[in-house]
Design a protein that fits this description.
207 residues; alpha+beta; two-stranded antiparallel ribbon; 29% helix; globular
């Protein structure tokens, strides 16, 4: 026969057993209803890679061109410039710039009695910009970088085309942008050079 002390001990053990069973049931129900967050993490798709923008540099493959007419009635000149670049100045010294103002091309069709090489030397000496660095000065083309006070790092490419067997310069073509635009700027300069049509008759530039 169980003593009162033994009866109390058995009652306590029975209560603990019921509590454990109830806790286990509640835990099982909660686990069944809770989402498996680790599985969701595995199924999540990666973020797509952003498409390149203009800040990555002017790319030659993105360029399309249109014909620009300038010069004078007696000495008309044509060349192809990037489509969408608007004329901000005409006549013998036209300038075309993209809508953002980051890139530009300009022509100086007045001509010069100096040879392209002398023009390169003169321009290199005359540039008054911070951190000027001449990258190359071959073949009548000056390539340089500098730092603009408001726009930051810039790059310029200036080319003089010869006339009279190289004794004088027929025209200057200059393109400008940022250092990361070099490939695109070279493409713009080369295309403008290749498509340039100078007057063939009564061309007395420079006067």
């Amino acid at each position: 026969m169980l003593t009162p002390r033994h009866q109390a001990l058995l009652a306590t053990l029975a209560g603990m057993t019921v509590g454990v069973a109830v806790f286990g049931t509640v835990l099982a129900i909660n686990n069944a209803s809770s989402p498996d967050t680790s599985a969701d993490t595995v199924r999540t798709s990666p973020t797509p890679t952003p498409k390149p923008s203009a800040t990555d540099g002017l790319q030659p493959g993105s360029l399309q061109f249109t014909t620009a007419n300038f010069g004078s009635d007696k000495a008309p000149i044509t060349s192809e410039v990037p489509a969408g670049w608007k004329s901000t100045q005409g006549g013998l010294r036209p300038r075309y710039a993209d809508p953002t103002g980051v890139w530009q091309i300009r022509f100086d069709a007045r001509g010069s009695k100096q040879s392209p090489d002398k023009q390169v030397d003169a321009r290199a000496r005359s540039i008054d910009e911070a951190d000027l660095k001449v990258i190359s000065r071959d073949g009548g083309t000056l390539i340089y970088t500098y730092v603009d006070k408001t726009r930051g790092p810039r790059m310029g490419l200036s080319r003089w085309l010869p006339a009279d067997d190289g004794k004088r310069s027929a025209i200057e073509i200059t393109v400008g942008g940022r250092p990361q635009d070099e490939a695109g700027l070279r493409a713009v300069l080369d295309h403008a050079t290749d498509t340039l049509q100078l007057p063939t008759n009564n061309d007395n530039r420079p006067s």
